Amino acid sequence: MIIPLLKGLKLTLSKFFSKPITIQYPEERLDPAPRWRGIQYFVRDEKGETTCVACGLCMVVCPSGCIYVETAEDEQGRRYPSVYELNTIRCIFCGYCEEACPVNAIKMGKNYELVGYSRDEFILTTGRLLEEESLNT
C-alpha cells in the first residue's frame, strides 16, 4: 500500500526538479515549424519600395476574398498598388497569394502575434506589409 504511494511521489519529484516543460512566453518565444504560414509581408526592392506590380492575381486567387488591390502607374510606366489592403481577420493563411504572385512580392512570414484593439489594426496596407518584413527576418 505504501510502495505505490512512494513510486508516485518519486515520479512527481523527478518531474518537479527536472527541466521546465513550459516557456515564459513574452520573454521566450518558440520558433514556428518550417512550413508555418504566418502574417504576410511585402518584399522590398533596392529603393526600399514594394516589388508588387499590382497584377491582382493574389486578389483573384484568395478564397476568402480578403485582398483588395487598386493599380496605378508612375512616370516610367511601372505599375504599383495605389491601394493594397489585406484583411487579416478574414484571411485563412492558405498561402495562395504567395504562390500566385509572379514577382514573389508577397511572402508568408513567421510572425504569429496578431493582436490589436480595433478592427482597423487588422487591415494591412502597403506600408504595414513593408513593416512586417522587419519582423520576419
Work out the helix count.
Answer: 4
The CATH architecture term is 2-Layer Sandwich
How many runs of DSSP E, i.e. beta strands?
5
Number of structural domains: 1
- Strand share of the residues? 15-25%
What is the subunit arrangement here?
A: single chain
| Parts with pLDDT < 50 across at least 5 consecutive residues | none
Cα gyration radius (Å) = 22 Å
Dominant shape: elongated
**Estimated helix fraction:** 25-40%
Task: Kindly report how far apart the N and C termini lie.
Answer: 58 Å
| Secondary structure category | alpha+beta
Series of H and E elements: HEHEEHEEH
CATH topology group: Alpha-Beta Plaits
What is the makeup of the main sheet? 3 strands, antiparallel
* CATH class value: Alpha Beta
Task: Kindly report the spatial arrangement of strands forming the biggest sheet.
Answer: 2-3-5
Mean pLDDT reading: 90
Task: Explain how this protein is built.
The chain has 137 residues and is α+β, with helices and mostly antiparallel strands. The chain contains four helices and five strands. The longest helix has 15 residues, at 2-16. The chain is elongated, with a radius of gyration of 22 Å.
Key traits:
137 residues; alpha+beta; Alpha-Beta Plaits; two-stranded antiparallel ribbon; 4 helices; 5 strands; 26% helix
